[in-house]
């Protein structure tokens, strides 16, 4: 099957233009009628780096590629608009695989109200998917960057941490006796990450001043916020909302569950800083979209990230380096 | 050098936000204030497929990646706005190489009035660059898709053809005695392709009804226009504006210069269909931005592409298959 035929096959699967999308796949460009301001992010996942092609399904690759990209929109508090996907396809990744990968991305697009608006397919010695996502907000002030945190702000995180790191061990074959539901919930953190879009909008609307998604690891991502905002972020590790099952997996591989929750990435939760007086409102707003919100620390004058161990021991600035 | 350090180094090279770009590299997303309608295209070039890393410079890779992407905006008649770049970087492509590649892209951005607004760097076993470009127009009607050609329309092409195919032979080491200026002009078709942005806008403004950039080859791209418009496109090969030097290179490798001009891609000229009465106005408008415009055929009822050889011999529908 030629590149043209494959593009035609992919194209036939995509929904027709509608709403903001005036012209979709099949022309030189997609055409959209944006409103307000646009938030745009680009990202790529590569076989052997971000996923292992031979231990995951094409569907899961497509899901993960789009979900991870949309997580950047969540971190701005933007409404998802369009997504574009470029596939680099090696010779032994066939048409059916490509369609399954696209199907996975389409499922995430459907679940999040995103229009898969365009893309391209090219030959490549290694499988990769490059994603572009565009989200919208009424104005720039409605979006939350990384640089707005102030001393005195509380530091909050959505959902639960450590699950993605634990899932990696399970997918690699580590055997841990877990209730089936808990086991599946952990694995889903790698196979079907969920971008926290609704929680991101709720946080933006309830006064978050700085926000990022936890992709590199809580410590590293907190450090990005601290750097951009010019504050120090103090995190109480005892407060981290560790996902059920993480402790058991950590014990099985001789790791520290806090290191999994803080030193490893891929949880795609949102880490935000907001004025202390807004915390209750934010918890309520995030709760109303079915997501927990936990206060895990505060911003103080200074720089970097300071971690406090559950024992009360101060692990120092950027102490997450020791945990990772 | 870590991914973070490299991103920081790249970021330091980018110009600060301004104009439509409200927030640039360094946050979860870029933020723009679009006006009118947006035309978005995604594309990737991969080592070993679209370029040979060891026979080209990082600067040239960066130039080509962005120029080729912008060519899709030219083909819509859109004004270039922002570009985003994701680099997949193998271990032996070092920081200096990355900066040189980005420098090449920045040079094309500067030359075309494009804002390099964001990007990402990821490890990859193979070097690739995935580009997203966003252009703008006042409204959808100002843009030219592929589906508007009507029987009776003239078929026109900008600039000169065959140069990219000939340049490939020169870069592969074919020795041809050419005047230095002519030799350099040919090689530049591969090393520094120029997106026909001004010519695209001029064609759009002077009544082009269907347009595409010549990336797959004149015959194949004419076929895309024919399919989307529901017409047959007839091309007189004798009329093709063959770039000086192509005939000499073709002779040296025993190829047909018309096959180079019609059956091979990468010339990034624009192929457009427009009403016969608008041809003079279009030639004048395109000429005023320093570009030639040549009538090479016409649209008739039917389907596919019909080529007429210089001898007058009819090569049949999709005759370009025989040439390629």
Task: Briefly characterize the structure.
Two copies of one chain form a homodimer. Chain A has eleven helices and 13 strands.
Explain how this protein is built:
The structure is a homodimer. By secondary structure, the first copy, chain A, is an alpha+beta fold. In chain A, the strands form three sheets. Chain A has a seven-stranded mixed beta sheet with strand order 8-10-7-11-9-12-13. The first copy, chain A, has a four-stranded mixed beta sheet with strand order 3-6-4-5. Chain A has helices at about 5-15, 60-75, 95-110, 165-170, 180-190, 195-205, 220-230, 245-255, 255-265, 280-285, 320-324, and strands at about 20-25, 30, 35-45, 80-90, 115-125, 130-135, 155-160, 210-215, 230-235, 270-275, 295-300, 305-310, 315. Chain A is globular and about 60 Å long. Chain A has eleven helices and 13 strands.
Low-confidence stretches of chain A: none
Q: What is the CATH topology assignment of the largest domain in chain A?
A: Phosphoribosyl-aminoimidazole Synthetase, Chain A, domain 2
Give the count of helical stretches of chain A: 11
Task: Bin the helical content of chain A.
Answer: 25-40%
Oligomeric form: homodimer
Mean pLDDT of chain A, as a whole number?
91
The secondary-structure element order of chain A is HEEEHEHEEEHHHEHEHHEHEEEH
Q: Strand order, main sheet of chain A: write it out.
A: 8-10-7-11-9-12-13
């Amino acid at each position: 099957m030629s590149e043209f035929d494959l593009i035609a096959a992919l194209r036939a699967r995509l929904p027709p233009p509608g709403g903001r999308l005036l012209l979709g796949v099949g022309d030189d460009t997609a055409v959209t009628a944006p409103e307000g301001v646009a938030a745009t992010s680009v990202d790529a996942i590569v076989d052997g780096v971000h996923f292992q092609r031979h231990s995951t399904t094409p569907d899961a690759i497509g899901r993960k590629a789009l979900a991870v990209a949309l997580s950047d929109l969540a971190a701005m508090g933007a409404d998802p608009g369009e997504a574009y996907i470029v596939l680099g396809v090696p010779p032994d990744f066939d048409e059916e695989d490509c369609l399954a990968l696209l199907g996975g991305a389409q499922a995430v697009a459907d679940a999040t109200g995103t229009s898969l608006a365009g893309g391209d397919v090219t030959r490549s010695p290694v499988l990769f998917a490059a994603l572009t996502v565009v989200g919208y907000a009424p104005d720039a002030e409605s979006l939350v960057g990384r640089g707005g945190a102030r001393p005195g702000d509380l530091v909050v995180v959505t959902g639960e941490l450590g699950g993605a790191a634990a899932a990696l061990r399970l997918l690699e074959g580590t055997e841990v006796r877990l209730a089936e539901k808990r086991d599946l919930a952990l694995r889903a953190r790698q196979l079907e990450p969920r971008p926290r879009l609704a929680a991101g909008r709720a946080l933006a609307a309830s006064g978050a001043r700085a926000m990022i998604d936890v992709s590199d690891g809580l410590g590293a991502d907190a450090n990005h916020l601290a750097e951009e905002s010019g504050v120090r972020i103090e995190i109480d590790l005892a407060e981290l909302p560790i996902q059920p099952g993480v402790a058991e997996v950590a014990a099985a591989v001789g790791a520290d569950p806090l290191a999994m929750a803080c030193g490893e990435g891929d949880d795609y939760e949102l880490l935000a800083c907001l004025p202390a007086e807004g915390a209750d409102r934010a918890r309520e707003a995030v709760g109303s979209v079915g997501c927990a919100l936990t206060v895990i620390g505060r911003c103080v004058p200074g720089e970097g990230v300071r971690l406090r161990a559950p024992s009360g021991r101060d692990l120092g600035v950027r102490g997450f380096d020791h945990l990772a």
